[in-house]
Amino acid sequence: MRKSKQSLLSFVTAATMIVWAFILAIFVSTQAQESKLINLAQGPVVGYKGDDADVFSFYGIPYATAPKGREKFKGPLPGPVWTEPLEAVDEQIICPQHASEIFFPDITATEDCLVANVFIPDTAEKNLPVLVHIHGGGFLIGFGNWEKPKQFVESKKVVAVTFNYRLGPHGFLCMGTEDIPGNAGIKDQVAALRWVKANIANFGGNPDDVTIAGCSAGGVSVDLLMLSNTTKGLFNKVIGQSGANIASFGVQVDPIENAKFYAEKINYQGDDFDSLEEFYKSVSFEQLLSYSLLVNRDHAVKFSPCVERDLGIERFLEDGPTNIIISGNYVRYPMIYGFTDMEGLFRIGEFEQWKNDMNENFTQFVPADLQFESAEEKEKIAIQIKQFYFGDKAVGDETVLQYVDFLSDVIFIYPMQKAVTLQVESGNNEIYLQVYNFTDENTPYVPYTKERGANHCDQLYAVFDHDYNMLTPEYIEMKEKMREIWFDFMKTGNPTPEWSSLPKWEPARADRAPCMNFGRTIQLSGTFVKERTDFWENIYNKYHRQPVAPYRY
C-alpha cells in the first residue's frame, strides 16, 4: 500500500513539473517576442514581431465603430478611445457574414468588427510609402487578415495596412432612407482611409504617400474610391486587380429591386416600402444573413455599392461610375489595372451544373447590367453570345476553355479594359494595364484539358505571403518581379522607372492599350483579346443599363 502511494505521489509530482515546465515555456516564448509601443490619439497600442518575418504586426486596432440595432445600416461612428496599452494581437476578428462557420470555422463574427491591422518593418526609417489593401470576397465574405503582406513589408521599403468592413446586406443594403442610406460597407473603407491618414505617421508611414490596392471586390472598391468626392487627399496611387467599377458586380443597378428580392428570400411577407424598411431594421442578424448570394448566374452581386439618394448627408457615390468618368469630375491617379488570363476559373466549380443550364437557357447568364425592351430581344442576344463563344458546339467537356473565356470576359476583362478606355478619354495618361498568366507545375490543369491558366486574383497571391518551401524556383522569381513592380509603382507612380530591370511599361493611350504580360517571361504586348472585348463593346454600347439611386414605391 505504501509503495502504491509513493508511486502515485511520484506520478503527480512528475505531472505537475511537466505542466509548470509547459507554462514556463509559453511564458518565456511570449516574453521573447519583441514588442513595439505606438501612441495614437485613441490610446497606446502594442504590436509584436513574430517568428515568421522581421515585421511588427498590430492586429485588431479599432478604426471606427459600427452602429448597432435599428441603426446597423448607417455609416460608421468614431472609433473608441482607451488609456491602457491595447495588446494588438487579435488576428481573428470578422464582420457578420453568411456561412462564416464554413469559411472561417474557428472565428466567431462580431458587430464590433471595424478594425485595422498594421504591418511595419523593423527599421528606423520614417515616411515610408504606405500600402492599404482592401480584401475581396464579392462584398459578401472575407476579412482583412485573409491575405497578409508581411513578406512584402519585410523588404523594409513600405508600411502596410489591412482592415475589415461590413459585408453583404449589413454593409450594402441601400434603400435611400435616413436609417438605410446605403454604402455602409464602403463608408467603412473611407473611415479606414481617414484613420490611416491621421495615424500612419506614428507607425513610420507617410500619410501623403498612400497606395490603395485590392482584388475582386477589393479591386472594385479601389476603383470606386477614386471616383468619390469623400476620398480626396486620402491616397495618391491605385492598384486595381480583377475588378472594375463598371463591372456587372461593381454597383447595384437597382438597389430597391435587390432589397425586395432578398427580403423575400429571408421570409419577408409585406408589400410596401415602409414595411420593407421596418423589416430590415428589426430583423435579427441570423435571419439577415441566412441566404447565400455567392453564386449568381447574371454575374451581379445583390449587395454591392450603390448610387445614393441626396439625403442632405455625405454621399459616397452620387452617380454611376461611367457618368462620373465621362464627366471628368474626379481625381486622376496613377493606376495599375490587372487581371489574369483565366479569371473565369473561379466559376469552374459550377461548370458541371451550369453547362446543361447554358445549353437549355443561356438567357440566365446574360449580365444583369444589360437592359432589353423585350424577352425576345434578350433571348436573341443570349443566342449571339453563346454562338460567339461556343459556335455550334454544346457547352460541355470539350468546350470548357470557352466557358472560362466567357466568364473571364463578361465579369472581368471587358469591364476592366472599358474602364481604362474611359479614363484615358477623360485625360488620365498614367494607367498601366497588366495581364498575369504565369503557371508552373503547381498550377492545376483546367478540367478535361491539359491546359493551365492563372485563376482569379492569382496575381495578388504572387505579391502577398506564401510558405516558400512549397514554391517552385520559377514562382519565387515571379514573386520577386511582381513585388518589384509594386515597390517601384508605390514609390514613383511608374511600375518600371528608369532603374527598373524589367521591360519598359508603356501607359495606355487613346489609340493603344498595351498590356504587360507576366508569364514565364515578362513582355509588353498589344491589346489583350481584342476581338472578344470588341464583341462586348458592341453589346454594351446598345444595351447598357445605368445604375439608379434607390426610390420609394
From TrEMBL:
<keyword id="KW-0378">Hydrolase</keyword>
<dbReference type="InterPro" id="IPR029058">
    <property type="entry name" value="AB_hydrolase_fold"/>
</dbReference>
<keyword id="KW-0325">Glycoprotein</keyword>
<protein>
    <recommendedName>
        <fullName>Carboxylic ester hydrolase</fullName>
        <ecNumber>3.1.1.-</ecNumber>
    </recommendedName>
</protein>
<dbReference type="GO" id="GO:0052689">
    <property type="term" value="F:carboxylic ester hydrolase activity"/>
</dbReference>
<keyword id="KW-0719">Serine esterase</keyword>
<dbReference type="Pfam" id="PF00135">
    <property type="entry name" value="COesterase"/>
</dbReference>
<feature type="domain" description="Carboxylesterase type B">
    <location>
        <begin position="35"/>
        <end position="536"/>
    </location>
</feature>
<dbReference type="InterPro" id="IPR019826">
    <property type="entry name" value="Carboxylesterase_B_AS"/>
</dbReference>
<dbReference type="InterPro" id="IPR002018">
    <property type="entry name" value="CarbesteraseB"/>
</dbReference>
<keyword id="KW-1015">Disulfide bond</keyword>
<comment type="similarity">
    <text>Belongs to the type-B carboxylesterase/lipase family.</text>
</comment>
